[in-house]
Design goal:
By secondary structure, the protein is mostly helical. It contains 23 helices and 15 strands. The protein is 41% helix and 8% strand. GO terms for molecular function: endo-alpha-N-acetylgalactosaminidase activity; sucrose alpha-glucosidase activity.
């Protein structure tokens, strides 16, 4: 990732921000939540801290118990002087956190009711499955907590001090998502709420790259807490892409933010956070960025390379599946969370239209299975007018050799990218799993994706789950597409590397499709190595046998991804937080072919 960046960049950054932010503005940013739930003021207890009935659409998964968990709100954190925060990351001793426990004992079942009610911060999953890896994982996750003025506001990307920090000492929005799920599942929603509110505040910054203003709604890729030792004062500093290698704004951050807001609402039953005017506005700003009209002829979202998890040049520019699936999910989550006021209604209409078109486009043009592959292989080219079958003028000679062996008899997937004369046939894990979770995929397509994972087990899971994409770019292709990137050599990092974080997505997708054994099997493989190897960021090699060349150790989302997968498999009712059923009011969509019907 951002290897060439200097560790000092944030102090420089701070200076450059202060040149265009008035003192008042800066104060607002740094002192914003002060904290609404912390001081027990009337306002906070009335509007923010009441437990309201969930308005979020109930999800009806088979065999899934899906009750919102009531929580104690407004737990005050201890008042602490800023001098206690000498660094941005203040690992808390476990005992401190135990005091802040909020998981209600009645939800833990019989096994737990015997436990004393105090000190209830023992993760539920630990009680249900006393596996040593779980306790190691929880301890590591807690060590990664980042505090801002005494409150936990996120988790650091990696706690690896052996290597240059680059920007792994920051809280990444996308990386925090699995951490947030783990905390929600464990009945600790406060940190998630803090994170949502802090990042919302960062969104309202005036963002500039060189002399260019970024769109109002852009959410940061990451942030960190800056401690001013002179004033003994803490402020937040964010990166919207202006420090990132390649200077790309993170398109995925805003989507993850909306999806997290829904997960929080669903898990706690607390609708008051999403209903806050600030949150409603935050959502509208994000939506405005991606729903605005332009020159597009497709409903998919056009992006630059490196604007998501794969944040380096990897040929994922155009219409990458990861962004399209997150976009779809975020639109569906937003339509559940937006209020039915005048502004909200207007957005709901725009969302509905876009979802309708996006669903059609994705299900038809991104979908590939044996039949579809055979059709492309036989495509005619240079067809003009609306009668064209080969609408994007794909030249059959551009089909890569590997795809013919990779495609199983049963199974299929959403390919990496569809744009004029360019189909990127690579498999991308995140986008496909998210397509299942959001019901962007039909039921048949979801089954087919899981079939493909099972049939291509060696390639996609191998000795460490899971390949971020398949296959790797090699030789000439690697030179042209990555620009000779030494970090993304074949079967390493983003280029066919194996990322343990992705296991939570596999777990959720396999539970949703009624095939949890797939994730169980993958998790057992991961368990043999993750702790021993100290939670690497990624693994290298065709089978994922080797700890990644430049992989950080103690990578938080590897830890959180594992914990979430384990907890979800132990208690599938957690699935409702991250999964949506097919929209029942959906108008029938015409299909180009029924090739995905198994
Ligand atoms: C790498 C990953 C990116 C992640 C970041 C922090 O850059 O590519 O997805 O957010 O590290 O872990």
């Amino acid at each position: 990732m951002h290897d060439t960046q200097h560790t000092h960049s944030f102090s420089l950054q701070l200076l450059s921000y202060s040149t265009f932010l008035s003192p008042l503005r800066f104060w607002e940013i740094s002192s914003f939540p002060m904290d609404w739930c912390q001081n027990g003021s009337d306002r906070s207890s009335d509007t923010l801290c009441s437990v309201a009935e969930a308005e979020v659409e109930e999800v009806d998964f088979s065999k899934v118990l899906d009750k919102p968990r009531p929580i104690e709100r407004c737990k005050s954190y201890e008042e602490r002087s800023f001098s206690e925060f000498s660094t941005i990351c203040s690992p808390h001793p476990l005992s401190k956190i135990v005091e802040n426990s909020s998981y209600p004992v009645e939800h833990l079942g019989n096994a737990v009711s015997l436990l004393p009610k105090s000190g209830m911060n023992i993760p539920r999953s630990l009680i249900l499955d006393p596996h040593p890896i779980l306790s190691e994982g929880w301890e590591a996750l807690r060590r990664s907590l980042v505090y801002f003025r005494g409150q936990p506001v996120g988790t650091i990307a990696a706690l690896d001090n052996s290597d240059e920090k680059v920007n792994y000492d920051q809280v990444f929005v996308r990386d925090f998502f699995p951490s947030a799920l783990a905390f929600l599942m464990n009945g600790e929603p406060d940190i998630v709420k803090n994170f949502i509110l802090k990042t919302l505040r960062l969104q309202s910054w005036e963002k500039m790259i060189d002399r260019f203003h970024l769109g109002e709604g852009v959410m940061p890729a990451s942030f960190k807490v800056f401690h001013d030792p002179v004033r003994n004062y803490e402020t937040l500093i964010a990166d919207f892409g202006e420090s990132a290698i390649g200077r790309v704004a993170p398109v995925d951050s805003g989507f993850w933010w909306i999806i997290l807001l829904r997960a929080y609402t669903k898990s706690t039953g607390d609708t008051s956070l999403a209903e806050m005017p600030e949150c409603q506005k935050g959502m509208r700003l994000i939506l405005n960025l991606c729903l605005s009209e332009g020159f597009d002829t497709f409903p998919t979202l056009l992006c630059a390379d490196g604007c998501c998890m794969i944040d380096r040049r990897m040929g994922v520019y155009g219409y990458p599946i990861e962004i399209q699936a997150l976009f779809f999910m975020a639109l569906r989550c937003a339509s559940q969370l937006l209020k039915q006021d005048t502004e909200g209604k207007e957005f709901m209409e725009r969302i509905a239209k876009r979802l309708h078109a996006l669903r059609y486009h994705m299900r038809n043009y991104f979908w590939l299975d044996l039949k579809q592959l055979n059709d492309v292989y036989r495509f005619k080219t240079e067809e003009y007018s609306h009668t064209a079958v080969n609408k994007f003028n794909v030249i059959p000679d551009s089909l890569p050799d590997w795809i013919f062996d990779f495609m199983p008899l049963h199974g299929g997937y959403f390919i990496g990218n569809v744009s004029p004369a360019r189909l990127d046939f690579r498999w991308f894990c995140l986008g496909n799993c998210m397509a299942i979770l959001s019901s962007l995929a039909t039921n048949e397509q979801s089954i087919a994706i899981m079939d493909l994972i099972e049939s291509r087990w060696q390639e996609l899971i191998g000795e460490m789950p899971l390949k971020v994409c398949y296959p790797a770019l090699e030789n000439h292709e690697w030179r042209i597409i990555t620009g000779c990137d030494p970090k993304n050599t074949r079967w390493s990092y983003h280029n066919g590397g194996s990322w343990p974080v992705l296991i939570w997505l596999l777990a959720a997708a396999s539970i949703k499709t009624g095939r949890p054994h797939i994730a169980k099997r993958a998790l057992e493989i991961a368990e043999t190595r993750l702790v021993k190897d100290n939670w690497p960021e990624y693994y290298d090699g065709k089978l994922g046998r080797y700890i990644g060349k430049q992989a950080r150790k103690c990578q938080t989302w590897s830890i959180a991804g594992y914990l979430v997968a384990r907890m979800m498999l132990d208690d599938p009712s957690h699935l409702g937080m991250v999964a949506l059923e097919e929209d029942k009011h959906l108008r029938p969509v015409l299909r180009r072919s029924n090739s995905w019907t198994l």
